[in-house]
Amino acid sequence: MTVYWLCFILFLVGLYGVITRRNLIKIAISLSIMEFSCFLFLALIGYTEGGVAPIVDTADPVKTYVDPLPQAMVLTAIVIGLATTAMLMAVIIRIYRKYGTFDIREIKNLRG
Amino acid sequence: MELAISVIIIFMILGAIYAIHASDILSAVIAGGIVGYSLVICFLLLKAPDLAIVQIVVETITLIIMVAVVLDSSRTEAYGKFDSQAWVTAATAVVILAILFWFLKEASAPLAPFGENTMRMADAYVNGAVDKTGSVNLVTGVLFDFRGYDTLGEATVLVTAVLGVLTILRIRGRK
Fold first, then answer.
1. In 3-state terms, what secondary structure has residue B19?
2. Who contacts B29 (Cβ-Cβ below 8 Å, separation ≥6)?
3. Segment A58-68, tens digit of pLDDT
4. Read out DSSP for B23-82?
5. pLDDT reading at B47 higher than 80
6. Record: fold of A2-110
7. Which residues of B109-135 are buried (b: 16+ CB within 10 A; e: fewer)?
8. Average pLDDT over residues B23-30
9. Closest Cα to residue B109, out of A5, A69, A48?
10. In chain A, what residues touch B28 (CB-CB under 8 Å)?
11. Would you give the DSSP letter of residue A59?
12. Is the CB of B40 inside 8 Å of chain A's CB atoms?
């Protein structure tokens, strides 16, 4: 159970960063930290003690495998995470070119 | 196994805390890379080689994009004075974290202990999957055969994101 708790603490650290930081790059980093902790949690749920990687050896098929279903889900989520991060960085670089700062308070004051 | 993974997760938490509090943005980005690459080691320990391969590629690309953005702009973080609004944000953060911690306590009660996964859902995918899909890698079988439409949707999301990035970077802002 300890690993689940540690994984959740990692999520909370990312959430803390999103709430308290003012720098857009740091907010993006905190978002990807939250993402990573979710991936890790799903991979942890699928683990079976003594299991092998879910690749079938046809010569010796009777084995315990690690659950392949969460792994397939996480594989999809990792790639989509890359897409959203790239999109986020594109928006951030546009904001920097327009306002000349990463600080969200100054961007709020300069609006209009 | 549980001990090794716990140690790596503690290392990830330390890296994350440093990434959030570093005063140089470039070192924050690199410290964020600690979390991503430690995740690769965790995936290898959890017997998920496909995830490890994909994660190491994705993390490298993310790091390159972030370093490019930081080098193209400013590296220092301007810490303002700790005004009243900052106190409100900090208090909100503490309250939200406390609520979420209670939620985890409730939600983790019915979970099976670590390493005792019952594979309720996966039996249908594991038994006879090689005959049904012709793929010895079960993860590939799930991704491209049982859930092929899911993967098609993922590819659509990727194309949309690429188009979005191109659109955002090409338009010219108001002068």
1. helix
2. A25, A29, B19, B63, B66, B67, B70
3. 777 667 888 88
4. SBHHHHHHHHHHHHHHHHHHHHHTT-HHHHHHHHHHHHHHHHHHHHHHHTS--B------
5. yes
6. Helix Hairpins (1.10.287)
7. eeeeebeebebeebeebbeebbeebeb
8. 90
9. A5
10. 25-26, 29
11. T
12. no
Q: What is the pLDDT of residue B56?
A: 94
Per DSSP, the three-state class of A75 is helix
Stretch B42-56: mean pLDDT: 91
Whether residue A72 contacts residue B142, with contact meaning beta carbons closer than 8 Å, is answered with yes
Contacts of B51 in chain A (CB under 8 A): 39, 43, 71, 74-75, 78
Give the pLDDT confidence of B130-163 residue by residue, as tens digits. Answer: 888 888 888 888 888 888 898 999 999 999 999 9
| Chain B environment of A102 (Cβ under 8 Å) | 25, 73-74, 77
- Report the pLDDT averaged over residues B17-27: 90
| A43's tokens | 């991979």
Q: For residue A106, is pLDDT > 90? A: no
Task: Please list, residue by residue across B57-93, b when 16 or more beta carbons sit within 10 angstroms of its beta carbon and e when fewer do.
Answer: ebbeebbebbeebbeebeeebeeeeeeeeeeeeeeeb
Of B72, B104, B138, which is closest to A93 when you measure between CB atoms?
B72
What average pLDDT is seen over chain B? Answer: 85
Nearest to B73 by CA among B18, B29, B133, B128: B29
* Per-domain boundaries in chain A: 2-110
Q: How many CB pairs under 8 A join A and B?
A: 249
Spatial CA neighbour of A33 closest among B34, B47, B74: B34
Q: Which residue type sits at A2?
A: T
